[in-house]
Amino acid sequence: MDDNSWDELAAAAQTGDKNAYKRLLGGIIPYIRAIIVPGLANVDWADDIVQEVLISVHKSLKTYDSTLSFKPWLTAIVKFRRVDFLRRHYSCRADRQVPLEDTAFIESHVTRDDIAGEWKDMEGALKRLPEQQRKVLEMVKIQGFTAQETADRTGMSVSAVKVSVHRSIKKLKAMLE
With 84 labelled, which of 11, 33, 57, 90 sits at a CA distance of 20 to 30 A? Predict the structure, then answer.
């Protein structure tokens, strides 16, 4: 199935053609898998991500502009769902949690003299950022919140969150050079 077929099937599915809808979903599955599988640490996750993509396509097919190509629209959904899945998976991993009493971990990762200066430099640079910018950067890059979650918690728009993070990283790089 080629890209033009997807365009036609998506347009027909929007008008209620159930056969076109079924053929579209069946036809895009190999493409979705081809995008997501190469970068996964666990190939078993692919089925979960494919399912999430298909649900997203189902829910948002009405927003697809049939005057445009379907493939870039689908690719964007695939990338967003993949990132969302990985962010959820890695944000709740128990193997990353270390009890404060674990002195061996603290000695090997926190109080090492060879990296202490780098941590101090980074902490100092973060403290020099304006408070709101630092808060947004920490939420997205350290705590693992999505731009949408950060926007909801801070009252900012999603695009403002993304711009803030980008500018913060740029400032940090300049401070640490």
Answer: 11
